[in-house]
């Protein structure tokens, strides 16, 4: 019995290790890209445009044509600060989102100068039903999509903070916008921006497969003189209408909730996802 017991220990250990390994690999392999946009219509999305009721797609701002979500202003006479957002139907907490987009055409009359070739992916956002009628942006973390103007350097996948702030290098950051380390993307080329969002701990921006920014502890603006605000653990995802026409041909997500509470599995999943450098075809 003694010999049989000790001889069986390595076998049992091997089985346990193999089982854990396969379970971890299975979890990572089961994390797939899910399409948030069905390529046909906006049935899974909600529209909120400033000074218009939730669900009112004023002047047909958000359209689907040629298989793309299109932001257009053909029916506007003047932009008049009518900032809009297209909200996905459900919130998320820990995930990797990927968006492929391009700027096209000319900015609508009345659009602010800073909004030239400017759009955004809003994450950890406010419920659009809670926005006031004249609210311009949802309280959220904005991953700014910024195209080149043909002469100046304009980094992409920057960070803006409507109603929010964050922590970077151990310091609370209160400026409204911060530039990434991204290069400038000129012209009407397709660009892919990805955002890794891990609950209230970490957010990382990627532009065409390159990490360009990371920061921690996304939070609402503080109240009552406090230094830090309420941490954002999740929220809505939305795409912006900021006065320049833009096409979105792909909006997809990997939901990391199943592994979010297991640091080892979460890191395995992230390593596997980011091992591929996803660059859009033109």
TrEMBL record:
Residues 32-253 form the 3-keto-alpha-glucoside-1,2-lyase/3-keto-2-hydroxy-glucal hydratase domain. This is DUF1080 domain-containing protein. InterPro entries: AL/BT2_dom. Residues 1-28 form the signal peptide. Pfam families: 3keto-disac_hyd. It comes from the Bacteria. The lineage of its organism: Bacteria, Pseudomonadati, Bacteroidota, Flavobacteriia, Flavobacteriales. Keywords: Signal.
């Amino acid at each position: 019995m003694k010999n049989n017991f000790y001889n069986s220990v390595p076998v049992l250990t091997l089985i346990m290790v193999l089982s854990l390994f396969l379970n971890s690999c299975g979890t990572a392999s089961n994390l797939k890209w899910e399409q948030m946009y069905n390529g046909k219509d906006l049935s899974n999305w909600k529209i909120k445009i400033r000074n218009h009721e939730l669900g009112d797609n004023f002047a047909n701002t958000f359209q689907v044509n040629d298989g793309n979500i299109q932001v257009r202003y053909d029916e506007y006479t003047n932009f008049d600060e009518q900032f809009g957002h297209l909200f996905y139907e459900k919130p998320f907490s820990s995930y990797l989102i990927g968006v492929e987009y391009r700027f096209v055409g000319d900015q609508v009359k009345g659009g602010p100068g800073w909004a030239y070739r400017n759009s955004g992916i809003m994450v950890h956002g406010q419920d659009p039903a809670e926005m006031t009628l004249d609210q311009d942006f949802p309280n959220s973390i904005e991953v700014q999509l910024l195209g080149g103007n043909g002469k100046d350097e304009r980094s992409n996948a920057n960070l803006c903070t409507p109603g929010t702030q964050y922590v970077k290098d151990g310091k609370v950051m209160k400026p409204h916008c911060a530039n990434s380390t991204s290069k400038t993307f000129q012209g009407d080329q397709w660009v892919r921006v990805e955002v890794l969002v891990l609950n209230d701990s970490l957010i990382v921006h990627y532009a065409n497969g390159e990490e360009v920014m990371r920061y921690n502890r996304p939070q609402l603006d503080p109240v009552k003189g406090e230094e830090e605000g309420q941490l954002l653990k999740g929220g809505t995802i939305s795409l912006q209408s900021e006065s320049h026409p833009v096409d979105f041909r792909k909006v997809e997500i990997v939901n990391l909730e199943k592994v979010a509470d297991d640091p080892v599995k979460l890191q395995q999943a992230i390593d596997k996802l980011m091992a591929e450098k996803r660059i859009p075809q033109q």
